[in-house]
Amino acid sequence: MTDVHAGGDLGGAPVEPNGAMKRRDPPDQRLARFLVRPLVDTAVTPNHLTTVRLVLGLAACAAYAIGGDLWFIVGSLLFLLSTLMDHADGELARLSGKTSKVGHVYDLAADVAVQVLLFIAIGIGLRESWLGHSGLPLGLLAGAAVGVLFAACQTLEARLGGKQAGLPRLGGFDFEDVLYVIAPITWVGGLEILLIAATVGAPLFLAWLLWHHWRVFFPREA
Question: Each residue of 130-182: pLDDT tens digit?
Fold first, then answer.
């Protein structure tokens, strides 16, 4: 669910060493690579971009928590930018060779903080909606479920090797790209449905992931 600051290929070659076809990078990742190329030979580091991503994400959470149509729109736009920046730091790390384990951990922490807090903020912001006071408990449940799912995905990637390893992909988009639908759902006034869907859907997807990769999560001891 995140780009790695340590390791990874630089060119995104279409063919693996064994001759197998390599998955084509999703459109947002290619866009991020294009945007950060001018920064390769500058003093800008991947950690700088991670910080920008974190600030944008926290600002988005604050806007959602304030609530109301205007602040929901502001929050959605900030979150879109934040999500795009999530790819930018990893692309700069690969293109410039400015990789670090500290940067990797920082990137992961920024990701999980923004993704968990977002659903809690949405729950707070919907206090005046038909969800009423149930918005906050739903937000807390959705945020907790997303946090556990994030940890499970990271475990899966680490054990199988490679970004998005073992996760479903549809139409050239990675699983994490589902975050992009939050903005348009906000624009059409569907945040209540989104929050309920996240509260129910995240645990269900986690259960499917554990079932589908049971031997990866719980390997038998030799």
Answer: 999 999 999 999 999 999 998 988 888 888 876 665 666 655 556 677 888 99
26-37 mean pLDDT: 85
What value, to the nearest 5°, has the Cα angle with vertex 178 and ends 173 and 181?
Answer: 115
Cβ contact 8:93 at 8 Å:
yes
- Signed CA dihedral, 101, 104, 110, 116: sign only: negative
10 Å Cβ neighbour count for 56? 21
Neighbours of 130 (CB within 10 A): 8
Tokens of 158: 């680490």
Least confident of 5-14, 39-48, 137-146: 5-14
- Domain range list for the chain: 27-217
The CA distance from 120 to 101, in Å, is 29
Euclidean distance between CA atoms 27 and 157, whole angstroms: 21
H-type helices in 18-170, by residue range?
A: 27-36, 46-66, 69-96, 101-125, 135-160
Candidates 3, 45, 47, 54; CA nearest to 25 is 3
The pLDDT of residue 4 is 47
CATH topology of domain 27-217: Four Helix Bundle (Hemerythrin (Met), subunit A) (1.20.120)
